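Record passed on here:
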Amino acid sequence: MNNIKIPKAKEIGHSKVITLKEDNSAFEMISIFEKFNISSAPVINECCEVVGFVAEGDLFKVLEESLFFDEQRIPNVGEIMETKVLFAKPDWNIFELDDFFTFNNLRCAPIVDSENILISFVTKKQLFKSLVNLTKDRFVHIKNQNEPVELSMYQKVGNILEGRIDNKN
């Protein structure tokens, strides 16, 4: 794929990431999810290190339980977050990122640096858009290439005799 640059995870991810803190209440989480039209978010500590991850599914279970079993108790994000977070590497290309999403059955992932500090957040939708753009670029590249020229037998023999073409093929 000459002259086509394969994008990296850090280039396609959102750098302005909507995050939560462990002490956010479930209601604050609902408000943030609705306000920013998101369905999941990384949870960070005061040093911007990713310490967990929450999604609508986690919240659904909590609300369902509080509705039917414990009406007074609404937990905070720290109590419902998943602490085993899978991270995307910043230098993965989009194909490595797709393998990561597919293998782990994910739709999004935080991208962190070597010290676990949040850099950005990447989604399957961003990955798809990036692949579509790459495909379009590739077709433009192919279209703009010169058509191969078919030489006549006379031209081929002339090139061989002049040493411009290896005649051993």
